[in-house]
Write a structure and sequence with these properties.
Elements (H helix, E strand, L loop, with lengths): L4 E6 L5 H12 L2 E4 H14 L3 E2 L3 E2 L1 H7 L5 E5 L5 E5 L2 E2 L7 H11 L2 H14 L5 E5 L2 H5 L5 E6 L2 H14 L6 H17 L12 E4 L5 H21 L1
Parallel strand pairs: 1-8, 1-9, 2-8, 9-10
Antiparallel strand pairs: 3-4, 5-6, 6-7
Bound molecules: 2'-deoxycytidine-5'-monophosphate.
The site of 2'-deoxycytidine-5'-monophosphate has 14 residues, from helix 2, helix 4 and helix 8.
Length: about 230
């Protein structure tokens, strides 16, 4: 059967990663979490004193060390995908609030976007890939055969994020997470370079009320229709 590219974009904590992962597993495609790559660059900047909440990002010095930042992925024994930063497994650390707070200002930097976009495109050369992010259907793979734009209200997204963080043992207040979600939405949608927006040919999935199984079925139906149309061509 013909392999395609599946691009899933949407707001932070909209549940798109879970959906993308579920779909990739079900259809036997490679899954790539593009947000994890922006988070890994952010973690590198934080660790090297090139970004902090008060002073913001030291862009000049970050650009100087950008070629030294190597990002890759590894499949863990339990089947989950882990992000590696210069060979170190940083999957847990990149999800911390400290990183979430700094990732949007890092991801507005054009040179960072160009480098990560090129890396993301290299993963898609043989198709058979599901990638989620903010600009996958618009910039990274504008010709992707299947594009989905995921929406959910900020209140529901913040509540989900709090539950996720609490389950990991991170003690966070709903108000702080809600503020972070809204601020990231603002930066992601208003930045100059590849802002978050729905591609004209993307299908919208609002998952405020859908269960994980219902979302999966929606995605699978769309995938099967597209693949059978492509194969018939
Ligand atoms: O999906 P996430 O919340 O893990 O993404 C983290 C941040 O990375 C998000 O605030 C915006 C940025 N990002 C981006 O600018 N472009 C992408 N394709 C993916 C993520």
């Amino acid at each position: 059967m013909k392999k395609i590219i599946v691009a899933i974009d949407g707001y932070s904590s909209s549940g798109k990663s879970t959906m993308a992962k579920d779909l990739a597993k079900r259809i036997g495609y490679l899954y790539v979490d593009s947000g994890a790559m922006y988070r890994a660059v952010t973690l590198y900047a934080l660790r090297h004193g090139l970004a902090d909440a008060e002073r913001g990002v030291d862009v000049d010095n970050l650009l100087r060390v950008l070629p030294d930042i190597e990002i890759s992925f590894m499949l863990a024994p339990d089947g989950s995908q882990h992000t590696l930063l210069n060979g170190e497994d940083v999957e847990k650390e990149i999800r911390l609030m400290e990183v979430s707070d700094m990732v949007s200002p890092i991801s507005v930097i054009p040179e960072v976007r160009h480098r990560l976009t090129a890396l993301q495109q290299s993963y898609g050369v043989n198709k058979g890939i599901v990638m989620d992010g903010r600009d996958i259907g618009t910039t990274v793979f504008p010709d992707a055969e299947m594009k989905v734009f995921v929406e959910a209200s900020p209140e529901i997204r913040a509540r989900r994020r709090v539950d996720e963080l609490l389950a990991k043992g991170e003690n966070v207040a709903y108000e702080d997470v809600y503020r972070n979600v809204c601020e990231r939405d603002r930066i992601d949608t208003t930045r100059k370079e590849s802002p978050l927006r729905k591609a004209d040919d993307a299908r919208v999935l609002n998952n405020d009320t859908l269960t994980r199984e219902e979302q999966m079925q929606w995605m699978l139906d769309l995938f099967n229709t597209i693949v059978s149309d492509e194969t018939a061509d």
